[in-house]
Amino acid sequence: MNQLSQQPPKVSIIIPMYNTAEYVYEALTSIMEQTLQEIEIIVVNDGSTDQSPNIVRELSEKDPRIQLIHQENQGQSVARNQGIARATGTYLYFMDSDDVLHKEALSACYACCERDTLDFVFFNAEILNKDNSFSKALNYERGQGNIQENQVYPGEEVFELQLSSSSYSASPCLSLIRTAFITRNHFRFYPGIIHEDELFTTLLYLRARRVGFLNQSFFKRRFRSDSVMTRTFSRRNIEGYFTVADQLLDVRQSQSGHTQQLIDTFLSRTLNAAVWEAWVMPFGERMYVLKKCLTRYRKYLSVRTLAVLVCKPIKSAFP
User: Fold this and answer.
1) Which candidate among 41, 125, 247, 257 keeps its CA 20 to 30 Å from the CA of 268?
2) What does the CA dihedral 55, 58, 60, 61 come to, rounded to 10 degrees?
């Protein structure tokens, strides 16, 4: 460990944490046991009120690669940005504190990025159920046969391939990213919203020149009924999507025709999916969403989506 500590880490793993005492030990252990050992592990405690900070503190006493940082509860974006500011590794990996990473993931991704001088490499994932079984039916298949391993793609090309096959996932947990690429482009997670990944990862693809793919399900995403992503769709969800759309529309103004088309395709798919889900909101809030859609995002939304938003009665969702 002394020799390892004298060298800059190859990868900085950034882990935002909020009240995941039931899972954080397993998540951190999966990082500590990576075959790539030259790493630093930055855990940002986002104001947890359970025992998760104590669990991390105990692990850090056994493994000096773990750093525990505390902040008042400000959300995942601010926590990740804190980690970026402190990271010293050649590459960054964003891990969630309730998920699991295959032990060969960082080694394989690092080797791929170094060999092909990549801005980032992405890979597959699968769902980790409550009983620690895997749901193959919910497997994230990123390539679907049209993206090849051992090939370097411009970011926009591989982004377009994923959009065309409906295989795009915005999770940053599915990519190992070169730190210099993030620094050069001043990438940060947008604070104060959920669905911030939709903006961050999309910008990665739009700016990257060299992207690779590993057709391996390295990431194990835990399915929890009480997580932010599985709760009933609410005003906070739609506001997050609207913020992402507004930010990308600002970016669109300074881009060429092809990049504009990619942003349009992404916004059309993302907004239609989000507004479709918004039908579960109270009628008054649905009317707010409708007004926003008609005044700012009309070109991206289908008549069918808007009809579902306005007309579908909430009671129809229940037997």
Assistant:
1) 125
2) 180
